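We emphasize that the prediction below concerns an isolated chain of 398 residues; any contacts that depend on oligomerization or on bound cofactors are therefore not represented. The input was used exactly as deposited, without trimming of termini.
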Amino acid sequence: MPHSPRPLAVTLQVVSIVLFTFIGYLNIGIPLAVLPGYVHNDLGFSAVVAGLVISVQYLATLLSRPTASRIIDNHGSKKAVMYGLAGCGLSGVFMLACAFLTHLPWLSLACLLVGRLVLGSAESLVGSGAIGWGIGRVGAENTAKVISWNGIASYGALAIGAPLGVLMVKGLGLWSMGISIILLCALGLLLAWPKQAAPIVSGVRLPFLRVLGKVFPHGSGLALGSIGFGTIATFITLYYASRGWANAALTLSLFGASFISARLLFGNLINRLGGFRVAIACLSVETLGLLMLWLAPSAELALAGAALSGFGFSLVFPALGVEAVNQVSAANRGAAVGAYSLFIDLSLGVTGPLVGAVAAGFGFASMFLFAAAAAACGLVLSLYLYHQASSSRHARDL
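Result of the prediction step, given as a token string:
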């Protein structure tokens, strides 16, 4: 019998691949907290334009998912990751040009927008490519582990990158962000070059829209669960200010710490219990956490609600992702990952204006009731999908 690798060896191999996701998302995180202020205060554009500079990256990621998926399935996930890292480096070049053109606001803004478009396209290659590369190296039976660690790498990089970018700009100037992004991507390419590629799986390639249709129910559950994350990340500081509470940043830190802890501690439950069962449990916990935020009479209970929300949301992506990837053959795995990931891009893209409208009409606390209702809908959908999958297995066994 072939010797199966030990869990630690599998984990180390997965971590060595998702390292490239960490590098890619560090490049996304570094300018995240700096650019709105730079566009509004230094270049003199409106807050709407400042918001556009951030959101245009998510739009580029959303639109580039189909192309990224084709590259992963047809040319290999390693090449996709390397193309993505090169794209991140190119965005650093535009960032550097933007810094030296501050005295020409429109030209500086144009460089910034082009760089953000390039970065968004690169994100879809690096994130989905690393998942495909990891699954190809450690086997489809470890899909949940790959997706979980990839998420830890991306969220951890964003958490580190944002304050790091602020410190660099304060100490050295805006140009330092461009240089650091270029150097990080060069390091990533050097590390990726000698690593073994995952084999390209032969087989019939389904059109992206066909794959999208297959993962649509699972992606819809992910999108509904992601509204809570988007609401907390975008509006928690305004919510705290409306209540006169301090330390809103601690809420985000606690949300992130709970998110990562849950993935580290309970990621293996997906293989043992199945994706749908884990998603049902997680969405239940997330709904409860968001309801706590809605009803919180004090900052301490709001902190507890944020921690519970982060804990619950943590495994929604990998749990439903495992079930989504299982809907297609191995030859279409890259397309499935890309199509599924598209739903979180879409959810985070619409959460800002949608939840902002709810807050404007009904007050800041109502945002969390809305997010809890969305998570509850995701829970009901996951229960339905679990019932359907159980019925199908039972019919096959007869």
